[in-house]
Specification:
The complex is a heterodimer of chains A (114) and B (114). By secondary structure, chain A is mostly beta strands. Helix content of chain A is 0%, strand content 53%. Chain A is built from no helices and twelve strands. Chain A has strands spanning 3-5, 10-14, 19-21, 24-26, 31-38, 44-50, 56-58, 64-68, 73-78, 87-95, 103-104, 108-113. In chain A, strands 2, 5, 6, 10, 11 and 12 form a six-stranded mixed sheet that branches. The N and C termini of chain A lie far apart (41 Å). Chain B is an all-beta fold and 114 residues long. Chain B contains no helices and eleven strands. Chain B has strands at 5-7, 10-13, 19-24, 31-38, 42-50, 53-56, 65-71, 74-79, 88-95, 104-105, 109-113. In chain B, a hairpin with a 2-residue loop joins strand 5 (42-50) and strand 6 (53-56). The chains are: A mainly beta (114), B mainly beta (114).
Chain lengths: 114, 114
């Protein structure tokens, strides 16, 4: 069975500082990996995904993530945080079989302080 | 496109009542997923459909829950009878099978069972 771990319930960072939100995964074979963001009272919005190729994936709003196969990690990063980045972030995985459902992590709340 | 549409946005009901949640997928998307989000359990997949056919309902918590997709433009999730522990935010998400699985989420239905 596939699984995702987001070890930090909350990450606090000052505006302008770099941020990292951690994610590790477990899946049979090669993964599809995703990051989603959820603002209060809203649905999840897609940020970026890794399917194949370059291990560094760039996404929306200046976010990027690095796929590390040996460490089974897919950490989300941004060079300079904004207060508006404060939200709940979810990592998700699926394998490359026919099953199309994603498995989501528990979420990490990012708080960017002015 | 208007995106994934869910109704109602908020539902408050009393224990024992029937609740019906509705989802209209993005036109042309042939996979539809129902998720439930709670503080305790995070984001859980309940069921998903492909071309209106249920593919995996292993996440449906019990017989009180049922889901249908009578056509490509509409799906319902029904709870009968409802219980306080069903209180959660229910999301619908859709993808096109030709894609690499970026799921598009609706805004969710916040269900409160008193």
């Amino acid at each position: 069975a596939q699984s995702v771990a987001q070890p930090e319930d909350q990450v606090n960072v000052a505006e302008g500082n770099p941020l990292t939100v951690k994610c590790t995964y477990s899946v049979s074979g090669n993964p599809y990996l995703f990051w989603y963001v959820q603002y209060p009272n809203r649905g999840l919005q897609f940020l970026l995904k890794y399917i194949t190729g370059d291990n560094l994936v760039k996404g929306s709003y200046g976010f990027e993530a690095e796929f590390n196969k040996s460490q089974t990690s897919f950490h989300l990063k941004k060079p300079s945080a904004l207060v508006s980045d404060s939200a709940l972030y979810f990592c998700a995985v699926r394998d490359k079989t026919g099953r199309r459902a994603l498995t989501f992590g528990s979420g990490t709340r990012l708080q960017v302080q002015p | 496109d208007a995106g994934v549409i869910q109704s109602p946005r908020h539902e408050v009901t009393e224990m024992g009542q029937e609740v019906t949640l509705r989802c209209k997928p993005i036109s042309g998307h042939d996979y539809l997923f129902w998720y439930r989000q709670t503080m305790m359990r995070g984001l859980e997949l309940l069921i998903y459909f492909n071309n209106n056919v249920p593919i995996d309902d292993s996440g449906m918590p019990e017989d009180r829950f049922s889901a249908k997709m009578p056509n490509a433009s509409f799906s319902t999730l029904k709870i009968q009878p409802s219980e306080p522990r069903d209180s959660a935010v229910y999301f619908c998400a859709t993808i096109t099978g030709a894609s690499t699985d970026t799921q598009y989420f609706g805004p969710g239905t916040r269900l409160t069972v008193l």
